[in-house]
Amino acid sequence: MKVENSDCKSVVWFVWGGLDALYLVWYVLGSLRHKKIPYLTDLENTLALLGELGSAQVAMVALSWVLQLSIFVSCFLFLTRRDAARWVAYSQLPLRLFFIVPSVSVLLVGVQFFPGYSPLLMIVLVVVSEVIKFWSLRKLNVRHVAG
Amino acid sequence: MSAFSLARIESPFFALSDVERSLFYPMEIDGLIDLISESGSSIEQCLYEQDKARILEAVSRGDWLLVTNSPFSPLSQDTFGIYAHLTGKSFSLGTPARSPAKLTNDELKQGEPLTMANIMGRDNRKASTQFGAGKWVKKEIDYDGIRNTLAVLINRSGSLIDEGRLIFSDGKDFTNTTRTLIQEWVPLANDELSYETGSAMHAYGSLRRIKQRFQESEDEWRETGKSWHWVPATADTVYERRTDEQ
Q: Which of A29, A45, A57 sits opposite B177 (nearest CB)?
C-alpha cells in the first residue's frame, strides 16, 4: 500500500511540478519574445504604476508577486518530491483563484489560441482545476496516513 | 421671495452629497436644473466628471445653497464659523421647498449679504480672514477600494491572453478604477502674493472633490502620444483665476 501510494504521489507531484514549470517557462519565453527581461521589466513597469494606486491595489500587487515567487518554490518542491510542496500549494490556492492563475497552466497556454475566449468559462475552469489540485493533494495525504 | 432661517439651510459640506446623488434625478430638487444649466451643463451631461465637478464646486463654494426642512447640519449650527462668509447675515433664498438657491444680485439687495464684493466691502475682519485669494492644494485622495478591486478583477479576466507579462505590469490592468481627489483652498504663500490680484476668491478651508478615472489618454510628453493616468488630470496645486462673475 505504501509503495503504491508512493508511486502515485510521485506521479501527482511530478504533474503539478511540471505544470508549474510550464507556467514559468511559458512566461519567460513570451517575455523574451516581446524583447523584455523576464520579471525585471515587469517589476519595473509595476513599480512605475505604484504611485498611482490606492493601498488596496498596492496590497493586490504585492500579493500577486508573492504568488509569482511561490510558484518558483512550489515548482522546485514538487519536482524534488518534498512534502512541503503540499502546504505551499494550499497557500497558493486562494491567490490562484483571486488572480485567475490556474495550476493547470495549459489553460493559460491554450487560451492564447482562443482570443475570443469566454472569461466566465475561464473562471469556471480555473476553479475546477484548483479543486482537482486540492483533492489530489488531500487524497494522497489521507492515504499516506491510512497506509 | 421669502427669507429663510439658517436652520433650514444645509451646510455646503453635507449639501454636496445630496446634490451629487440628485444629479441622477435632477427633478428631485427644485432649482437643480438651474444650477446644472448655470454650470454650463445639461441634464444629459451633468454626470460626466468634469460637469459634475463644476456643479459640485458651486455648491461647495456656497454659491448655491440647499434649503430643506430637515438639514443634517444647518448653517445655524456653524459654531466654528467655517461658513462665516455665508452666515454673517440673514438672506432670502429660493422657494419654500427643498431647493438649491442661487444668490443673485436682486436677492442681495433684499436680504443684504453674500457676494464676495459685499463681504469684502464691509469692514468685517472675520469674513475677510476667512475668504480670499488662494490656491487649491491636494488634501487627500480617496480611493474607491472595493469598487476598484472589482474593476481590477474584471480587467484581469480579460487579460489572460496577454503573453509574456505578469498581472499588474501594465496600466490597463487598472483601467476604470476611480478615486476622488480632494483639494483645499488655502492662502497663497509669501512668494506667491503676486498672483493675488488675478486669483479667484473662495472660503479658506473649503474643499472641492474631483472624481478621477484611470484611463489611457493623450499625453504630449510621451512618444506614443498616450499614457495611463488619472482623468481629468489635475495638478496637486491649482491656481484658479478669477472670472468676470467673481
A: A57
Q: Which of B158, B161, B170 sits opposite A112 (nearest CB)?
A: B161
The pLDDT score that the predictor gives to residue B28 is 76
Domain parsing of chain A, residue ranges = 2-146
pLDDT at A104: 94
**Considering only CB atoms, which chain A residues are within 8 Å of B174?**
49, 52-53, 57
Kindly state the DSSP code that residue B189 receives in the 8-state scheme: P
Percent of chain A that is helix, strand, coil (3-state, to 5): 80, 0, 20
| pLDDT given for residue B92 in this prediction | 39
Beta-strand pair B226-231/B178-186 = unpaired
Answer yes or no: do A42 and B166 touch at CB < 8 A: yes
Listed as own residue / partner, the contacts of A14-18 with beta carbons closer than 8 Å and 24 or more positions apart are: A14/A78, A14/A79, A16/A74, A16/A78, A16/A85, A16/A89, A16/A103, A16/A133, A16/A136, A16/A137, A17/A74, A17/A75, A17/A76, A17/A77, A17/A78, A17/A79, A17/A85, A18/A78, A18/A79
Written as one letter, the residue type at A1 is M
Q: What is the ipTM of this complex?
A: 0.84
3-state secondary structure of B206: coil
Sign of the Cα pseudo-torsion (B201, B202, B204, B207, in order): negative
**What is the nearest CA distance from B171 to chain A, expressed in angstroms?**
7
Shortest CB distance from B174 goes to which of A49, A100, A123?
Answer: A49
- pLDDT tens per residue, chain A (147 residues)? 454 567 788 899 999 999 999 999 999 999 999 999 999 999 999 999 998 899 999 999 999 999 999 999 999 999 999 999 999 999 999 999 999 999 999 998 888 888 788 888 999 999 999 999 999 998 876 544 443
How many separate helices (H) and strands (E) can be counted in chain B? 8, 12
Query: From the CA of B38, how many Å to the nearest CA of chain A?
Result: 33
Q: Compute chain B's Rg from CA coordinates.
A: 21
